[in-house]
Amino acid sequence: MPVEEVGYAQGTNTPYPSAMYLIGPRGPEYRRDVVHQSVSWYVYDGLGSVVEEVDPSGNITAARKYDVYGLVRSGQLGSSSQKYVGGLGHESDTNTGLIYMRARYMDPVLGRFLSEDPVRHGNDWFLYCVENPINCIDSTGLAGTALEVSYATAEEAILDEQGSSVARAVLGRAQEIVEILQDKYECLREAIEYGFDRQGNAGIVFRNNRNRRTLFRFVLQSDGQWLVKLTSDPTLTYYFGSHYFLASQIEQLNEVLSALL
After folding, report:
1. Residue 9: enclosing H or E segment and its boundaries?
2. Which of 96, 112, 137 is the last residue of a domain?
């Protein structure tokens, strides 16, 4: 889909078409400068950040490296305003160094939003990607947790029927799962949210001993394996990783967790 960029003549308020973007499934694919008729194709990394620009002959015209929060560590600025996670449509402001994420600005130096979450979700309204930008994304500037839908209790989550039937069955064992995880990992103080991610998988959010959020998601694979995915505070000493295990029935979930986690 073509999208036109509008510029303004110096010293006037007269708009003119300055560039044309081709927008694809992952974001801007290229930018064509209307004045100079030059074309830059964009190369993305796994987070959706623009790391290189190449000309039609395949020559690299700009390249840059970012830290995990989008601070440019090295390289040239290039022509694109979409840089760090630019595939999500977020624009980087070259004058301020801030990244506009639709609902609010994020400061890559601080790794936090400059204004509070408008919906005031969770306990810290300035967090970006629950302090885990490698594994999480925030496409709207509003995501305070990786759970798409969350509830104060497992019972509320089950009754609302937002997740899959398997996910609701997992949350039916929530009390046992919470006790197992807290017994295994002393840093988990209390379970504060229950709900479902975008794929309908069950998730439980804990508050840890540093008052940060730790999310466990329980994903049933097509081959019958369970995958426990963790989104955690990267500054913690505790690191759980991802755990695979077989469970033919939901009732066996707590037994396998006790044995392997």
Report:
1. none
2. 96
Alpha helix stretches (DSSP H) within 161-252: 165-172, 174-184
> Which DSSP string corresponds to 71-101?
-EEEE---S-S--TTGGGT-EE-TTT--EE-
Q: Are residues 170 and 231 in the same domain?
A: yes
- Single residue among 33, 65, 96 that ends a domain in this structure: 96
- What is the CB neighbour count within 10 angstroms for residue 72? 17
Sign of CA dihedral 24, 27, 29, 32: positive
Q: Which domain holds residue 28?
A: 2-96
pLDDT of residue 247: 56
Whether 124 is in a domain gets the answer no
- Which are the contacts of 58, defined by CB distance < 8 A and separation ≥ 6? none
By mean pLDDT, which of 67-76, 166-175, 239-248, 250-259 is the weakest?
239-248
| 250 in Cβ contact with 169 (< 8 Å) | yes
Q: Domain total for the chain?
A: 2
**Maximum alpha-carbon separation in the chain:** 71
Residues 155 and 230 in one domain: yes
Q: Please give the Cα distance from 107 to 225 (Å, whole number).
A: 39
Q: Are residues 156 and 233 in the same domain?
A: yes
pLDDT of res. 237: 38
Residue-level pLDDT at 3: 82
Helix extents (H) in 32-164: 154-160
Over residues 135-174, the pLDDT tens digits come to 666 767 765 445 778 899 999 999 987 888 888 988 998 9
pLDDT at 125 over 90: no
Structure confidence by residue, pLDDT tens digits, 104-117: 999 999 999 999 87
Q: Is 132 inside any structural domain?
A: no
SS3 121: coil
